[in-house]
């Protein structure tokens, strides 16, 4: 299956998403900020990123921008509880998909399968 990086500053969300991904048969690594995610991304080759939008030390949009700057062509699903920003803003910033919080697990699974069709 796929190696997925999960980025969120909430330990509870990291554990929930990790358990969900493991249940789907994937392997994952965890990062608590966008900056930490960049370090992890340089150490391993990932198939997908699932990142929160609102975080200190590099939010989800910052991470998307850094991925472009580092020429890392990775699909990224942004998750967020911020309902003032719409899906199109994330997509235009480079996200491959958007899932609101609270996380709709079937929707997240659908997006993962869409972005990783062989996984």
**What is the overall shape?**
globular
Helix fraction bin: 40-55%
In terms of DSSP E residues, the strand content is 15-25%
User: What is the straight-line distance between the termini?
Assistant: 5 Å
Q: Based on helices, strands and strand pairing, what is the structural class?
A: alpha/beta
User: Which oligomeric form is depicted?
Assistant: single chain
Task: Report the order of strands and helices.
Answer: EHEHEHEHEH
Please, how many helices? 5
Sequence of strands across the biggest β-sheet? 2-1-3-4-5
Show unreliable segments.
none
Mean pLDDT: 90
Question: How many strand units?
Answer: 5
Main sheet overview: 5 strands, parallel
| Radius of gyration (Å) | 13 Å
Structural key phrases:
5 strands, single chain, five-stranded parallel sheet, alpha/beta, 42% helix, 119 residues
Characterise the protein shown here.
With 119 residues, the chain is an alpha/beta fold. Helix content is 42%, strand content 21%. The chain has five helices and five strands. The chain has helices at 11-23, 34-43, 60-69, 87-92, 105-115; strands spanning 3-7, 27-31, 48-52, 75-80, 97-100. The protein has a five-stranded parallel beta sheet, sandwiched between helices. Strand 4 (75-80), helix 4 and strand 5 form a beta-alpha-beta unit. Helix 2 packs parallel to helix 3. The longest helix is centred in the first third of the chain and has 13 residues, at 11-23. The mean pLDDT is 90.
């Amino acid at each position: 299956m796929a190696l997925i990086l999960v980025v969120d500053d909430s330990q509870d969300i990291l554990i929930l998403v990790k358990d969900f991904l493991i249940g789907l048969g994937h392997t994952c690594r965890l990062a608590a900020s966008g900056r930490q995610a960049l370090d992890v991304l340089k150490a391993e080759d990932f198939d997908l990123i699932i990142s929160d939008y609102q975080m200190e030390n590099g939010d989800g949009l910052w991470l998307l921008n850094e991925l472009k700057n580092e020429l890392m062509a990775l699909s990224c699903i942004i998750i967020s509880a911020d309902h003032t920003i719409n899906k199109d803003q994330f997509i235009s910033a480079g996200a491959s998909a958007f899932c609101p919080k609270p996380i709709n697990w079937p929707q997240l699974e659908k997006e993962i399968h869409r972005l990783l069709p062989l996984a």
